[in-house]
Write a structure and sequence with these properties.
163 residues; mainly alpha; Arc Repressor Mutant, subunit A; 7 helices; 0% strand
Length: 163
């Protein structure tokens, strides 16, 4: 009988590349696709006792079902993040429109944020850079850009509600 680590090792060698390509088709992002494969393997490790023959069609279906689940979870989280971004954009635009000044209002709002959030928000909303471009400019990962953007938005929303 094969050990759990042998089974996972075989699954990884056999399916990792095709899992990555499948996840990329859903997520259209290299890093998110890698995250989906990672999450799927974590699930496979937890349920390794159910996996007996890495080459069987049933195990292949299980592997790709785990990947599909992980990729869709990540997709949903990204969708929520994009929706929150749009809400914040509208909120900032409405505030700027009501006060008439323009981009200075957004810039002033960002000065109230901690530096690490303000720099990300400036790149994304003032300079109009993409997440990938912001990542390159600030020398941080795209995932960190997304997280700082999300946290910065929450802080801005809180600030706007207080005003």
């Amino acid at each position: 009988m094969q050990s759990s680590s042998d089974i996972i090792d075989k699954l990884y060698r056999q399916y990792e590349q095709s899992m990555y390509h499948e996840a990329y088709e859903v997520l259209h992002d290299e890093y998110l696709a890698e995250d989906a494969v990672h999450e799927a393997f974590l699930k496979l490790i937890k349920n390794c006792g159910k996996l007996t023959d890495p080459g069987s069609p049933a195990v292949r279906r299980y592997v790709f079902k785990a990947l599909e689940s992980a990729a869709l979870d990540i997709y949903r989280k990204q969708k929520k993040l994009r929706e929150k971004c749009l809400e914040l954009d509208e909120s900032v635009e409405n505030t700027a429109a009501s006060e008439e000044p323009g981009p200075e209002v957004q810039s002033d709002l960002f000065t109230e944020l901690p530096g690490k959030y303000a720099s990300v928000m400036r790149c994304l909303f003032i300079d109009g850079l993409s997440i990938r471009e912001t990542s390159a400019v600030l020398s941080i990962s795209e995932a960190l850009v997304r997280k700082r953007c999300e946290r910065g938005r929450k802080l801005l929303e809180k600030t706007l509600r207080q005003k």
